[in-house]
Amino acid sequence: MANLRVLKKEIDYRLEELVFDCDMAICFQPSKEEAIFEVMKEGVALRNELFTKVNNPAEPHNASLVRKHYSALRREIEESFGKLFEKLSGINEEHK
Q1: Which of 23, 34, 88, 93 is 20 to 30 A from 44 (CA-CA)?
Q2: Whose CA is closest to 8, among 41, 47, 58, 36?
Q3: Looking at residue 38, what is its pLDDT?
Q4: What per-residue confidence (pLDDT) applies to 84?
Q5: What digits encode the pLDDT tens for the residues 54-80?
C-alpha cells in the first residue's frame, strides 16, 4: 500500500513544478498571462481533487481494493499533470 504522506508529497511536488513553470512562462511571455494563469488554477483544482481521492479510498477495509485505488491514483497523477504541462507548452508555442 502506498504511504499516504509520500503520495501527498508527490502531488504537491508536481503542483509546485507546474506553478514554477507557469511563473517562468509569465515572466517571458506577459501577453499570455491570463491563459497561463488558467493552467495554474487548473493545477490547484487538480491538486485538491487528488488529495480528496487520496484521503478517501473506495473501500478502506479491503486491502486489495485499496492497493488498486492507489495504483490507479498514481497513474491519474502522472496523466493529469502531464496534460497540464502539455497545455502550458502549447500556450508557450503559440505565436504572439
Answers
A1: 93
A2: 47
A3: 96
A4: 97
A5: 998 878 888 888 889 899 999 999 999
CA distance 82 to 17: 11
* pLDDT tens digits for range 23-53: 999 999 999 999 999 999 999 999 999 999 9
Q: Residue type at 53? A: K
C-beta separation of 40 from 19 below 8 A: yes
H or E element, residue 71? helix 63-93
Task: Provide the grid cell at 6.
Answer: 509520500
CA distance 85 to 87: 5
Residue listed under C-alpha cell 508529497? 9
Which residues 6+ apart lie within 8 Å of 45 measured at CB?
Answer: none
Kindly state the DSSP code that residue 10 receives in the 8-state scheme: H
Under DSSP, is residue 95 helix (H, G, I), strand (E, B) or coil?
coil
